[in-house]
Design a protein that fits this description.
Aminopeptidase; 4-stranded antiparallel beta sheet; 423 residues; 6-stranded mixed beta sheet; 10 helices; Alpha-Beta Plaits; alpha+beta
Length: 423
């Protein structure tokens, strides 16, 4: 009898498959479908994006994969295990001569593996596949599982939006368990249970005018900067503040909201070197779910306008617009944070402690797909991810032992003899 492949070989197979182009992502989905069918992990379906959906015109058609593992015992709930299988283009992220699609091992430490997407997202994907195999060997499955593997997380979370439009997260499902990375270095210290993620709004600030090199420069903190209107905006953006939630768990776990400049460019010069136009792309990472794109955009524009006026740059000479980032088709991701004493958090915390010992709560640092489902379906969600470090660089790595530990926790959740979301 052929044995189920070990965790390293599954991870190596996933890393070896390119999934940052439409054809590569399609082949990855087909591989996951084939793997599930070969090992009888559950009822498996590959689902194309629906016609008329943004990005559905791409060829080959983008798709998602879901695997249903029904309970063997009555009276339980259904949970959604969620992750994605696409990745970023490694060009420029890996040194010349290094194959990003080859899984390598840390010298002297066979547990630590490197390779494109080994941590984000494949560590969590492999944990889900291993957990599904474990569940086929256990007859006390109290809760049903829908494993949803989506395309396009790296590009506007398009796959999870497509899945929701097709009701692939149906009303049976009462909670979500994501396995995408928590972001940062989680190799050291106690195990972590993610109870939320921040949200993101992408904006573009456009500045123009016949007299860009204008204004009273009176701040000696930045003597190297010319007194241009784009320089003041460059300085002002990181200082903009947004309303935060007052609850203790938001103050304790959720990162503070902030503006970060992702790109700055000046153009259409006049004279020798004085720019006539400037464009700034801005990421607003925020933690208050009461905010939205409209409120955030207005707050950014008002703050920047006040900054310009403070330095005697006023209408009509000043022309500035704040707009949605170009090319955005999907809604931006809103933040969410579960209460630490909620039933799902406490259930997961207890199961993880039985397996892993000390466990601490945290909010993930980066945006991903889980908040889309949590807000749209109004269900609680947590993140249980393997230990790893980095993403999108040649330093990205993941712990094989932690993948197996995460798989065991996921299987224990499905076999938990009690409710997941209710006391």
């Amino acid at each position: 009898m052929i044995e189920f492949p070990n965790t390293r070989s599954i991870l190596a197979s996933c890393v070896a498959r390119e999934s940052y182009t439409p054809p590569g992502a399609r082949r990855m989905a087909e591989y996951l479908e084939s793997f599930s069918n070969e090992w009888k992990l559950g009822e498996t379906h590959l689902v194309d994006f629906p016609k008329g959906f943004p990005f559905a015109h791409v060829r080959p058609t983008p798709c998602n994969v879901y695997i249903d593992i029904p309970p063997t015992q009555p009276g339980g709930e259904w949970m959604l295990w969620l992750n994605h299988f696409d990745s970023i283009d490694p060009t420029g992220h890996y040194p010349v001569g290094r194959d990003p699609l080859e899984l390598t091992t840390e010298p002297g430490d066979s547990d630590l593996c490197y390779g494109l997407k080994c941590n984000d997202p494949m560590g969590g994907v492999v944990a889900m596949l291993v957990a599904a195999h474990l569940l086929q060997q256990r007859n006390e499955r109290r809760h049903g599982v829908r494993m949803l593997l989506v395309c396009g997380e790296e590009d506007q979370s398009q796959g999870v939006h497509a899945a929701l439009s097709q009701n692939l997260v149906d009303d049976r499902i009462t909670c979500l368990v994501g396995t995408d990375i928590l972001v940062g270095d989680t190799l050291q210290g106690p195990a972590r249970l993610g109870i939320g993620r921040p949200g993101r709004v992408g904006l573009q600030v456009n500045i123009e005018g016949v007299d860009m090199h204008a204004g009273d420069y009176s701040d000696d903190k930045y003597p190297q900067l010319a007194s241009t209107r784009e320089a003041w905006i460059n300085l002002a953006l990181p200082t903009i503040q947004f309303p935060e939630r007052p609850e203790q768990h938001y103050q304790q776990y959720m990162p503070r909201s902030r503006c970060t400049i992702s790109q700055w460019s000046s153009g259409k010069t006049h004279g020798l070197s004085v720019a006539k136009e400037a464009t700034v792309n801005v990421d607003v990472i925020y933690g208050n779910p009461e905010l939205d794109e409209v409120v955030i955009k207005a707050a950014v524009r008002d703050a920047l306008q006040r900054t310009l006026q403070d330095h005697n740059i006023r209408e009509p000479d000043d022309v500035m617009t704040v707009v949605r980032e170009p090319g955005r088709k999907m809604d931006f991701t809103k933040p969410y944070l579960e209460a630490p004493n909620s039933p799902l958090v406490q259930t997961c915390l207890n199961i993880m402690r039985q397996r892993l010992g000390e466990v601490v709560l945290c909010a993930a640092k980066g945006t991903a797909d889980e908040p889309v489902v949590v807000h749209r379906k109004r269900i609680p969600g947590v993140i249980i991810a393997p230990r790893g470090r980095g993403e999108h660089t040649d330093g990205e790595c993941v712990s094989l032992k932690s993948i197996d530990e995460t798989a065991a926790v996921l299987a224990d959740l499905a076999c938990h003899d009690g409710p997941l979301t209710q006391r």
